[in-house]
Every structure is written in structure tokens, then in C-alpha cells.
């Protein structure tokens, strides 16, 4: 009989969830299963997971708490990488996890370091779930990863990295010297596999990082490796604030529009990272986060320089499968 901890992962077909699944399987110390909705169970992405030998548990999240308790039976660690528009669906899952005797719940965090309320709508909705966990005294760990290498690099004039770019990233905000926590998306799962077996991280917040870089430093690395000059555009703090206010005003007129909500997420990320300068180790430590690199000094993450060298060599991949 297996003595491995049994881990159930929600959101394994997404970008973050896919990295977590890879990291858990690579660690080879867990019995891993994946939770999928009935509408997704027959999709190719779910079949690919089954083909890797990972069992599926099928359930909607909007069923009764008791049905979810049944779905969670036998699970030690529950990890959620649910999509950003469905965060609040975790509330019933949290209550079911408590009733099912889950030993540790990892709620969907995996974003930049930011204040608990009032700065990022995405962070505010995650906080609702964190508070529900704490209300029930369910053991937890919140894991944030900063911003990905994969969405942080600028395009170069030749166009040779466009194939891997989600956005151009040639805009410098303010003076471009705000330090930012960055993690290669492929390292997320490898970090998670370490964190969830560490008693030091129970009921704690943890941040991961592969590099701490400013916008100017990122562009300097890109220019050095590519031999090309990036045409830097500049956005003042006032212009960033105007864009944020416009996006929030637009959403307030139509709160149910997912496109407007996504635009608010993006502009709030920018404001938090570059204007408030929240996404940096100093502020993370102030908020009480543990540093994963300090916890695991032997862990060798992928640096931004290593990542971008891969992109230049044609080995990059555009995030989110776009």
C-alpha cells in the first residue's frame, strides 16, 4: 500500500495548474489525482492527463457541500489553480475540504505580492477565500510567484522573439527602477512540490522567485543577449493612474463583462508593480511571507537570462497556448 501523500489538483489544464502537475509528477513522491468538471472530462486536455497515468475525479464545484465532501475523500493535500473568473467558487470547496479532513489546502494564489485589499480586484477575491479558510481553521499555505519570465520580456526590432511574446513589453513605467519578483512558469510546480511537504510553511504565505529585476534591467539583459536595441517607450505614473481609473470606471458600468474585468486585472497589476512597487522582497517580508529560496537554498531556479536565451534560440513557448 502506498505511503505517499495523496494530492488532488484543481485547474490542471491551465497554465499554472499544468506547471504544478508537472512539478508534482517530477517529484515522484505523491499520489496525484486531478479534479475536473463534467464538461471538461471528455476534452483532449483531460485525456492527455489520463494518458500520463493521472486519475481524474469528476465533479462540478457548484454541487452541494456534501457531494464535494464525497469527492474529496482520501485526499491529504488539495491544490487549487482555478481560473481568475471562478475564484469565489472555491468557498464551497473550502468548507468541503474542512469536513473531509483535508490536511492542507493550497488556495489559488500564484500571483504578485500585493496588499490584501483595495489595490487589486484579483487579490481581493483571493482574500475572500483565504478568510474563509482561516474562519474554519483549515490548514493552508498561500503561494505567490510574482510575475512570470514568460510575460516579462520585450520584443526586439528583428521580430525573432515575437513567436513567444504575449505582449510587446517595451513600455517603461515611471523611471523603470521598481524591483519585481519574477518566476519562470516552469518552476512554479517544482517550488510547490517542495512547499507542500514542508511543515514550516503550514498556515504561512510563501513567495517564490527566480530573479528580482527592474524593467530597465530586463531590457538591458534582452539587449545584451540579442545584440539589438529595444525602442523604449515611457509611461508616467500619472498616465498609469489614468489608465487604471478609466478601466475601473468602465467595469463599474458593466461589472459582468469579462473583457472589462480582465482589463482591470492587467492595469491593476501594472499599478501595483510599478507605481506602488508592491511586488518586491522587502514588501513581501513586511507582509510576513517566507522566501522559498531561503527555505530551499539548494533549489536552482531558471534565471531570466537563461529563459531569454532559450527564447532567442527558438525554444520559447507563448503563454496560455495563444
UniProtKB/TrEMBL annotation:
GO terms for molecular function: oxidoreductase activity. Signal peptide: none annotated. It holds the Pfam family NmrA. Keywords: NADP, Oxidoreductase. The keyword NADP applies. The keyword Oxidoreductase applies. Gene3D superfamilies: NAD(P)-binding Rossmann-like Domain, UDP-galactose 4-epimerase, domain 1. CDD domains: PCBER_SDR_a. Residues 3-238 form the NmrA-like domain. PANTHER family: NMRA-LIKE DOMAIN-CONTAINING PROTEIN-RELATED, NMRA-LIKE FAMILY PROTEIN. This is NmrA-like domain-containing protein. It comes from Aspergillus nomiae NRRL (strain ATCC 15546 / NRRL 13137 / CBS 260.88 / M93). The lineage of its organism: Eukaryota, Fungi, Dikarya, Ascomycota, Pezizomycotina.
Amino acid at each position: 500500500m502506498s505511503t505517499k501523500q495523496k494530492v488532488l489538483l484543481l485547474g490542471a489544464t491551465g497554465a499554472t495548474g499544468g506547471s504544478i502537475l508537472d512539478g508534482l509528477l517530477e517529484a515522484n513522491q505523491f499520489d496525484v489525482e486531478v479534479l475536473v468538471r463534467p464538461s471538461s472530462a471528455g476534452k483532449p486536455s483531460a485525456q492527455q492527463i489520463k494518458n500520463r497515468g493521472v486519475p481524474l475525479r469528476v465533479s462540478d464545484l457548484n454541487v452541494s457541500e456534501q457531494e464535494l465532501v464525497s469527492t474529496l475523500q482520501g485526499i491529504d493535500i488539495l491544490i487549487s489553480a482555478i481560473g481568475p473568473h471562478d475564484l469565489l467558487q472555491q468557498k464551497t470547496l473550502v468548507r468541503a475540504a474542512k469536513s473531509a479532513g483535508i490536511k492542507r489546502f493550497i488556495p489559488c494564489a500564484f500571483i504578485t505580492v500585493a496588499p490584501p485589499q483595495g489595490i487589486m480586484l484579483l487579490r481581493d477575491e483571493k482574500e475572500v477565500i483565504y478568510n474563509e479558510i482561516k474562519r474554519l481553521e483549515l490548514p493552508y499555505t498561500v503561494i505567490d510567484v510574482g510575475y512570470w519570465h514568460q510575460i516579462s520580456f520585450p520584443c526586439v526590432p528583428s521580430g525573432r522573439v515575437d513567436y513567444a511574446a504575449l505582449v510587446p513589453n517595451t513600455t517603461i513605467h515611471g523611471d523603470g527602477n521598481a524591483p519585481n519578483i519574477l518566476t519562470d512558469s516552469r518552476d512554479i510546480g517544482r517550488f510547490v512540490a517542495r512547499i507542500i511537504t514542508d511543515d514550516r510553511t503550514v498556515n504561512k504565505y510563501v513567495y517564490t522567485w527566480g530573479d528580482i529585476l527592474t524593467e530597465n534591467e530586463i531590457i538591458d539583459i534582452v539587449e545584451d543577449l540579442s545584440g539589438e536595441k529595444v525602442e523604449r517607450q515611457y509611461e508616467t505614473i500619472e498616465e498609469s493612474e489614468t489608465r487604471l481609473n478609466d478601466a475601473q470606471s468602465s467595469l463599474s458600468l458593466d461589472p459582468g463583462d469579462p473583457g472589462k474585468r480582465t482589463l482591470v486585472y492587467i492595469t491593476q497589476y501594472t499599478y501595483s508593480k510599478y507605481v506602488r512597487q508592491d511586488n518586491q522582497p522587502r514588501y513581501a517580508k513586511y507582509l510576513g511571507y517566507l522566501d522559498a529560496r531561503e527555505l530551499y537554498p539548494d533549489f536552482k531556479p531558471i534565471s531570466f537570462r537563461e529563459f531569454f536565451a532559450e527564447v532567442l534560440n527558438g525554444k520559447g513557448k507563448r503563454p496560455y497556448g495563444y
